[in-house]
Amino acid sequence: MLLLTSAIMLRFYRNDFETLIHQCRKRKWKEDVSVIVDAMRDLSTKGWQPISDDESIDDGKFIPPQPQLEPTSKTYVAIVDAYMCCGDEPLGWQVVQEIEDLPTITRELPMYRKFVRGAYLLTNCNHIAELIALAREDKIVFTQRMGIEVARMYGYRHEEGFNILAYELPVGECGAKMKRQGFLEELMKSCAYKNNSVGTEETLQAMLKHGFQRSAATEIALFICCIQHDTVSEAQVMLQHFQETSLMMPVPVYDSLLREFYFKYTRRGDVFDESSRKVAMKTLYARRAIFELVFKDRETFEAEQNATLINGPDQDSACFRYWCSKAGLPCSPLMFSQHAVQVLTTSRDKDSKNAAEQSVRDALMITPDPCLFLLQSVVALRFLDLTFRTLGKLAKQLLAVVTDELQMEKRHAEYCVSQLPVLSVHIVKELDDVVFLHLTHRADLLAFCQDALETNNIDKTMGFLMRRPELYDAETASYLGPKFAEIFVYGRVSNVLMFFKSDTEDTLKMRRQFVRDVIELESATMEENGEEGGSSCFSCTHKAIREFKLEHDAEFRPYLMQARAAMPKPVYADASATPVDDTSYLKIPLAQEHIVVVDSDETLLFATDLLMRDSVTRLGLDVEWRPDSRATVPSKCSILQVACDDYVFIFDFVAMALGDLEELFEHLFASATIVKLGFAIDGDIKRLRWSFPEVTCFDTFVNVVDFSYETLETTTHLVDGSIVLFHETDDDCVSKKLLRRHRRRKGLSTYIKQALGYPLSKLQQQSDWERRPLTLQQVTYAALDAFCLLLLQDAVSKNLVKTNVRQSKIDLNQFPMSTPAQVLQDVQFKERLADVEARLPVTLALAQEGSLAKRNQIKRKLYYDSELIRIELEERMNALGIESQWDTASEMKDANTKLDAVRKQLKLDVLPSSSSPIEKLYMVVRMLTMALVLVGWISCVTVLIPLKLLTPMLQKMGVKKNYLPMDIVSWGTAAMVCVTACTDVKAEGVENLLNLKDSVVCMFSHSSNLDGFIVNGSSPTAFKFAVKKSLFLIPFLGWSSRWGFDFVAIDRSHRKSALKSLKELAVSVNERGNSVCISPEGTRSKDGLLQDFKKGPFYLREETKKNVVPSIVFGAYELWPPGRLFSIPGHTLVRYLPEYKPDPNLNRNQNRLALRRIYLKAFTEDVPDYIGTRVGTTFILKNMFYHYLAWSITVKVTSWAFTAIDLVCYYLDITYGTFMLFSLVTMVAGEALMFFTC
């Protein structure tokens, strides 16, 4: 088939065949690769002549030889890659060897890279030595990643691996010794991971013998060998062996780590298994700073051989004294902290903890400055793999040891201030409790809090500020105001509004100022993005105004109205659009051929060659990703733009594997000689790290200039997310404090316009960056976004831009208490209920005039406002974790009683029944016809149940769901019920069901007996309904529903039975692909208004993991409300709403409330005036014809039935009475079976 596909291509390109090879690689079609290659060779040399079955007949035009199809080096790279991915390493190696006999083909780096990568994934190193020999002949230099993969393959064959990595592996001349050192360290780790401790030890001894050095990485590898043992005693024996043979540093901290790991991660039964070992290795990697700092003081520790002799019952105290005696070493505070963590976290009883604290106290007293060393140890806690909460707890325990006896001095506070940039708010809070920075260094602490609001836990930072009266004032609010507004608008963090909850003297003033700040930020954002009047129009402003109850403030009312008028439209921008206004936008001053999209090995080689040159001293960086403002999961980066003075390279992450780009990126971003220019580049870096967590090339960005700040500072972005000042002459940049900086209020386009005179067009910013190929407009936009940063730097260097610093104010308020009373206050229950009650008389007066639909619509709208209060109360209690008090708290009971009183007065009006004798007679006729359809006709349908046995065969024949026999009968029955009831059904939103790509759970509002029939008869999808059990007990109707239509009976009086039925319905969805329909209200509404949603339908939704299609029926309640004998002929409307995708981050109850909001909103939308009113005479006459037709068919079928009964009685030689008795027994048996199985 692939050969045929290859041969009949109308235009022959080598890339087409290479694409086929790539498809074989993806599908593991190993045998077809050779077929494609043979086809390429034949077509390139012989051409192709299609021949029919009769060889004497020419079946097509001869295609001459196509020389361009001759396989090239790139083709053989694809072949090797395909074989390796198919798991056939010998065949891949055979292809590599065959190239030797092909004079036109050369082995290039991509081929070696693909083979090494494949062998690494297959853990097969049989031909690696031969491959390296070929690479040396071809003068190929292995990349860093290739060397690491080779090292990892030789964990069980360390001797051979050492010879290859130390001498044979081609690594180039530049930094060869350092590269080989790194590869050998990786070999040691591979041996350790594979529990080859002998290989690890022998590899290190060989390294020392051949001139290589020990390092922190070798220490870690040997430590991994120790934790491969099952008990701590065995691990300590191996550790002591390594230290006595001078293979590991003779320090007691390693023994402390071992004891902590085995104590924490040993499972029940004293088993330290593979699961425990995985967790220990993960923790070990997180604490690698211990090994790195210890190794920096290597000479000091190796001079003292007695360090490993610390043991015995007083071992912990001796270790504490050991590190305190070496307080002058840079690593001592961290080692002291590690040992404190081990002792304090492994002490289970109070006496042992007191003894540990006493040991710490006694050891600290031998240091020259106990308080300073203690503070250094607390600061060093950040290097340990601990949660923020645990860090705070340990810091508190350590600080409580000596602070009761010793007083902190000014120098101690200054030391703490110097360390603020690298600390979390959890540690700072504990330091402040003993050093009182908020009294002595208020400005520095506020600057720290401003940064912590962006990089740390926002709630913890706000709590830290609010619990200190000296900080919790208007001055602090003014200082931090811009940051709070930025977090609220850009970060969408609503918690900042909690600062305005308490009533203080300046509360109103602070609220108004905060709203003004939010308005300004949103206005600037809309101006920057060209979104005035768009979907995000003043959404945050609207939220703040509502929260602060400023709706009636004349200053803010226009913004409130504009926000309400904005309708969200989640669509992407046109990727091929160009600006149509008269504005002159900035254009890129480069030729199109100087904008290179890096999406292949050729373009990557070109980009690497140019960007690795010494002449490249600055780069403009920018990142693009698909817009995800309405997505549940952020989008990954699609492209990275890198601009130098002459070229712009657009690295396509969709087309390229990041492993091929990692070495280049690591050089560019870690280089101190290349300036990286960006605008809000910290956000781009965070998105890159989130998108590709498996690589390390985005860990560190050195020499960065961010134009989004008013003050331009050269910084370094570290792997832990911190930003520090960059200095070329300083090796350690951690201690360099980065002063507080202000972000610009305007975006890049405005800044560019100020500097260069022309703004940037942002037309393509919201386009789909994952779509391929990229349009010319997208490529041009992306290139200019990065290149304009170079132009901006030139302009700034000439002092063309003046910056302004803006100050704003904000107030700080207390967090609300988690009580029902506070919840009522939070949602402004009294005020909003009073507003609803005040509008109630007017609403009831207006509901006396107009059509029935209009009158009920007026009531629905006020009901929406009152019910929204109930929903917000329940949502708030869910958010605070006190939802269990919803039904028990007296405050909530009282609130629900008041809301129910409002609901009672808003009961919808119904269509009055007529007293006319003719209409009563017509009603009787319709009732009899409906009974005839549901019982008489369905009895015939029961006979059709065996048609279900044909369903699998029909599906194999291509008959789709919704067109199977029983589905058609189900539709027809529902439609006939609507006809016999003389109900006119209109449907809106049917396209929401036609466009479904998967089965769904349809939920419908329920206020009448007609609802289910209306939904089933008007839907293009055949639903499986959940029906109350009593309906299944109707003869024939219940049988057909249960065994014919696959409906499920719900026993609402027994919870376990109902859950079992819901699981049965879930099986119908998950295993058979059916769509189901259920009412979230459970039963009919007695007043026509939406009832509370039951939990059962949402349990079903969770079991099926399907989306929900909400539907609302209008008019059915007005025609046939509960309590009325039968329906009045009239008009109804069913609306199918857009598919609702439940939020996976919300629980079942929260999704229930979210969907109820959607229903309430749709419940208040206008409906035509004729809905819920009587049908016209024409419709009734047409309906009477259908009744006549139904009875005519019934009479005819009945005569046939009696004839058939006579024949049966004759052939069975039984009387008519016997037959009827048998039929009665059968019906009773069926009903009994139905009763006990539903």
From TrEMBL:
Record protein name field: Phospholipid/glycerol acyltransferase domain-containing protein
One annotated GO biological process: nucleobase-containing compound metabolic process
Membrane-crossing segments per the record: 921-947, 1188-1208, 1214-1236
Pathway: Lipid metabolism
GO molecular function, one term: 3'-5' exonuclease activity
Limits of the Phospholipid/glycerol acyltransferase domain: 1000-1116
Pfam families given in the database record: Acyltransferase, DNA_pol_A_exo1
Keywords: Acyltransferase, Lipid biosynthesis, Lipid metabolism, Membrane, Transferase, Transmembrane, Transmembrane helix
Gene3D superfamilies reported in the protein's UniProt record: Ribonuclease H-like superfamily/Ribonuclease H
